[in-house]
């Protein structure tokens, strides 16, 4: 069933004159905008314990308003629990720590008072409702006026490029279009934060790429909307994120731009998680005389595209090609290093750039010493 939940429902209409309340509300909103410009979501010292186990362990995090954060990590590391905490779905008994969204302390607020849009893995829409009615659902629950509903639904559908689809039924839409309707439904309530849990995982590879671009352009068109997106997919993180949070066992392994995580991983776990990494003994890649040559506590990290295959020569890295895999535009070449048997170095090269390597070739690997990053194991 549908798991997209606009969680902010209306308070009953006031019997008092609507105008002063509306003015108050507008003034409050304006004030909130001013004072919270820099703070979209703030999490302070969050620990979630189920029994003995801390699923989230003393986690602190501040997102700027309008930032798109992707949350990555292995299965079971606590990604969904983090999202559920923000949404208000983790029972208070299990939680210590505080949550502030758009300047409001929401730690103890029930889910329906948090003004969040949720879009979870399954995007199934209500099959018996038209696209319009699916999107209008949350607004009707909040008792928004009819005319306003029509306008806001039209705006939300336009935002996801489905301005003409309001009259269609879900069964008449492709998977990608259904996912966009689900997004419109999350956005129509004008949430402060959009929480996405694996929003692309039910889509096939092509559709995934296209909905991913939609999401990116949507983020550009809604600069004030803070988005937290849990994903397993590195490409989602690389394409979408302002910043990526890589989690490990309920803690932050590294938080930064995807580029920072890729180019300057904090440790071997991060290096291996985001893209392929060659992790080598520093003595193998730094020349004698370079202080880093003698470094024993660290690993030297070189990405596959930073290695070049060369004729056997004077490079300290040499060995035998053990596999050549073709990925369309690129070739991935595994080289069993003489100095490190059993853990082949990976080289990525453009297909068609020079002679295609052949399994069994004896080769050297060239690299720039300046490209090598020293990291914790
Ligand atoms: N209500 C709960 N009671 C007990 N344990 C729970 C509860 N919710 C989650 N867990 C446990 O907490 C751990 C983290 O779960 P969570 O769903 O946050 O992981 P995840 O990183 O999102 O994993 P996945 O990528 O597989 O969705 C898991 O071991 C899970 O079994």
TrEMBL record:
SMART domains listed in its UniProt record: AAA
InterPro entries linked to this entry: AAA+_ATPase, ABC_SmlMolc_Importer, ABC_transporter-like_ATP-bd, ABC_transporter-like_CS, P-loop_NTPase, Transp-assoc_OB_typ2
Gene Ontology terms for molecular function: ATP binding; ATP hydrolysis activity; transmembrane transporter activity
Region ranges (Disordered): 1-31
Biological processes per GO annotation: quaternary ammonium group transport
A Pfam entry, by short name: TOBE_2
Gene Ontology, cellular component aspect: ATP-binding cassette (ABC) transporter complex
Domain of life from the UniProt record: Bacteria
Positions with biased composition (Basic and acidic residues): 21-31
Protein name: ATP-binding cassette domain-containing protein
The organism of origin for this protein: Pararobbsia silviterrae
């Amino acid at each position: 069933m549908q798991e997209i939940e606009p969680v902010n429902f209306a308070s009953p209409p006031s019997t008092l004159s609507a105008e002063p309340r509306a003015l108050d509300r507008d003034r409050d909103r304006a004030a909130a905008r001013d004072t919270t410009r820099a703070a979209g979501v703030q999490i302070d010292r969050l620990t979630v314990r189920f029994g003995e186990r801390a699923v989230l362990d003393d986690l602190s995090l501040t997102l700027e308003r309008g930032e798109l954060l992707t949350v990555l990590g292995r299965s079971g590391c606590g990604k969904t629990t983090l999202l559920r905490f923000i949404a208000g779905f983790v029972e208070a008994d299990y939680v210590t720590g505080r949550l502030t969204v758009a300047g409001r302390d929401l730690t103890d607020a029930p889910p329906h008072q948090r003004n969040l849009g949720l879009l979870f893995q399954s995007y199934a829409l209500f099959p018996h409702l038209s696209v319009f009615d699916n999107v209008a659902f949350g607004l009707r629950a909040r008792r928004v006026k009819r005319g306003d509903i029509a306008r806001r639904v039209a705006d939300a559908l336009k935002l996801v490029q489905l301005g003409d689809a309001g009259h269609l039924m879900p069964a008449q839409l492709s998977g990608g279009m259904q996912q966009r309707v689900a997004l419109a439904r999350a956005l129509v309530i004008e949430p402060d934060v959009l929480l996405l849990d694996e929003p692309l995982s039910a889509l096939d590879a092509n559709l995934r790429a296209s909905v991913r671009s939609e999401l990116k352009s949507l983020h550009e068109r809604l600069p004030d909307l803070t988005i937290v997106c849990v994903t397993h997919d590195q490409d989602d993180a690389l394409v979408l994120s302002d910043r990526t949070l890589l989690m490990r066992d309920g803690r932050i392994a590294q938080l930064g731009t995807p580029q920072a995580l890729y180019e300057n991983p904090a440790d071997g776990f991060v290096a291996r998680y985001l893209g392929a990494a060659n992790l080598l003994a520093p003595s193998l890649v730094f020349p004698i005389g370079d202080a880093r040559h003698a470094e024993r506590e660290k690993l030297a990290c070189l990405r596959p595209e930073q290695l070049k295959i060369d004729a056997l020569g004077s490079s300290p890295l040499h060995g035998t090609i053990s596999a050549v895999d073709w990925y369309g535009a690129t070739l991935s070449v595994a080289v069993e290093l003489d100095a490190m048997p059993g853990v082949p170095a990976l080289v990525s090269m453009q297909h068609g750039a020079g002679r295609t390597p052949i399994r069994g070739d004896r080769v050297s690997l060239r690299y720039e010493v300046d490209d090598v990053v020293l990291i914790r194991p």
